[in-house]
Amino acid sequence: MNNPFEFFGLDTDATQRALDVRYETLKKELQEQRFQPGEAGEDAARKLGLIDNYYADATAAIKARDHEGNDGAYIEVENLIKANNLGMAQSRLDEISSRDAEWHYLQSIIYYKQNWFLESKKQLEFAMSMDSSNPKYRDSYDKLTKIMASKTVSPEELRSKEESTQGQPVGGTGVPTCTGNCCCDLCLANSCCNCMSSCMHC
User: Fold this and answer.
1) Of 120, 116, 87, the residue nearest 105 (C-alpha)
2) Among 87, 198, 188, 79, which residue's Cα sits nearest to residue 144?
3) What is the spatial distance between Cα 194 and Cα 112, in angstroms, rounded to a whole number?
4) Which of 8, 26, 68, 120 can bridge 112 by disulfide, Cβ–Cβ 3.0-4.6 Å?
5) Reduced DSSP (H G I as helix, E B as strand, rest coil) percent helix, strand, coil of the chain, to 5
6) Which residues are 176's β-sheet partners?
7) Those residues with Cβ within 8 angstroms of residue 83's Cβ, 6 or more apart along the chain or in another chain
8) What pLDDT is stored for residue 64 in this prediction?
9) What is the pLDDT of residue 175?
10) d(CA 77, CA 202)
11) How far is residue 76 from each of residues 46, 82, 160, 163, measured CA to CA in Å?
12) How far apart are CA 125 and CA 135, in angstroms?
């Protein structure tokens, strides 16, 4: 069978959620049917031996399909980040429903550039858990971890996104500061962006 979706009785445009539900249901059915006498039991046992391979193939196909569909949007988000238009970059990223490893990587960059280091690290961990073979995610994570552990970043600067958004507005614009001081914010941002430029590739 060349189409793994046929094994589960699904169309090729099925979502990962639909595949997961069908996989669990079918596996349970086959586990019960394999004890039936004769050909029915043999057929169920044979399919049970194949189900995990077909599930892996279908999952890979879904990931490839979703990633291909997101490529243009990811490029747009990257360009917005490079232009330092973080608000628009976040809005565009939020519009992408399929949140794969690259989605979490880009989210980590947006968080990092706002000095939300803890959230940035969490997003990189998500990316690595979804695609452990990608060296870009691991390299970024290692460099961010070193920066967070360095003496150049104080404990106050490792606040979470929720904590940092409680800072005082700057110049009446409603934009919160990270450190509570505009000058310190600028120094921290410049320092971190220089350190992470090679890490985040943006």
Assistant:
1) 120
2) 198
3) 12
4) 120
5) 70, 0, 25
6) 169
7) none
8) 79
9) 40
10) 10
11) 46, 10, 27, 29
12) 13
Residues 112-144, buried b or exposed e (16+ Cβ, 10 A)? bbbbbbebbbbbbebbbebbeeeebbeebbebb
Helix (H, G, I), strand (E, B) or coil at 176: strand
Angstrom distance (rounded) from CA 158 to CA 13 = 42
In order of 119, 146, 153, 163, the CA distances from 124 in angstroms are 9, 14, 19, 20
The pLDDT value recorded for residue 182 is: 43
pLDDT at 73: 87
Give dist(CA 196, CA 80) in Å, integer.
Answer: 17
Lookup: tokens for 82: 């490079």
The three-state secondary structure class of 160 is coil
Residues contacting 198, CB < 8 A, separation 6+: 143
- List CB contacts of 17: < 8 A, sequence separation 6 or more: none
Tokens of 171: 């110049």
Cα–Cα distance between 66 and 61 in angstroms, integer?
Answer: 9
Question: Per the structure block, which two tokens stand in for 68?
Answer: 């291909």
